[in-house]
Amino acid sequence: CIVFIDEIDAVGRHRGAGYGGGNDEREQTLNQLLVEMDGFEANEGVIILAATNRRDVLDPALLRPGRFDRQVTVPNPDIKGREKILGVHARKTPLGPDVDLRIIARGTPGFSGADLANLVNEAALMAARVGRRFVTMIDFEQAKDKVMMGPERRSMVMTAEQKEMTAYHEAGHALVGMSLPKCDPVYKATIIPRGGALGMVMSLPEMDRLNMFKDECHQRLAMTMAGKAAEIFKYGPDSVSNGPAGDIQQASALARAMVLRWGMSDQVGNIDYSEAAEGYQGNTAGFSVSANTKELVEKEVQKFIQDGYDHAMKIITEKEVEFERLAQGLLEYETLTGDEIKRVMDGLPPTEDPGDDTPDQGSAPSVTAIPKAKGKKTPPSGGMEPEPSV
Length: 390
Description:
Oligomer: single chain
CATH class of the largest domain: Mainly Alpha
Structural class: mainly alpha
Helix content: 40-55%
Shape: globular
Radius of gyration: 26 Å
Distance between the termini: 45 Å
Number of helices: 12
Number of domains: 3
Number of strands: 5
């Protein structure tokens, strides 16, 4: 007999962590579970399995020898695992001759088994909507965009000014991401509203990521802060919108991890403050260390983020021509892939015309035009991305 308990942290949390006291029903359930597990004899043929995403909150008594003493960590699948999982979920789905599951697996790093099942299902729905009896690679690409970036909201009405600011914001992310070698390759940039954002730049690693390095983290901070740098570069420091709110949230989380957990700050040193900073979200009252350490941590986090912003601004200033081309290209084409972004930055149309070896300067003047001297413009009202939820 196999007894499987899913989400065991619902009943197996550390006793005394809540406010219910010893008579709490959850604690009584846990106590009875511990008693029953101790009561099993070796020859009863009962195997107990349990699963959780929060091993850190489990009561230590559950993990003692004789209970759940064998713990197996199940990470997200690697490229070979993703290919096999895709094969399982696609067995009953008619695939077109152009579908290569290995290519799809290579383009979905970090996907869990459930994510891959959802991807196959979304691709099948894409094909069904156009009346096709089999699924093609185009369907998988569209499904991947929907899973990773959210569904398109083409019905949203944006003014020309809002669309322009979105284009410059995303052009900043894409330009800096393309310019820094340690950033993940830019997969796609779009100014079509998706999910909760009015625009998005998506990067994908070339292989499964096992660790992160200090210089890579600093370059990620630069790419993350490039949206705000682009807005200030184009419209001036007094005209920045609330669009970079999500970017600032991501940059703050990365910078805090570098300082508090990963020992990447020379000033703070090789000390793990993550336990002392439990629940710390920029609120120093929740940071149980000395006042001097709090101040030092805040200064280092702020310095890392500011360095990333300055690096992004330097790249945008030095590559103003490419920045302007990319923004105008997004305004004209709305969505550009990584290869198309490179062509647009070089002053070429996104796709190569097989009948013409030279770029047609008249076909896409908004993309290939060399910008004149920069003048500050009055920005539109409204932001690119919603304020982060609290």
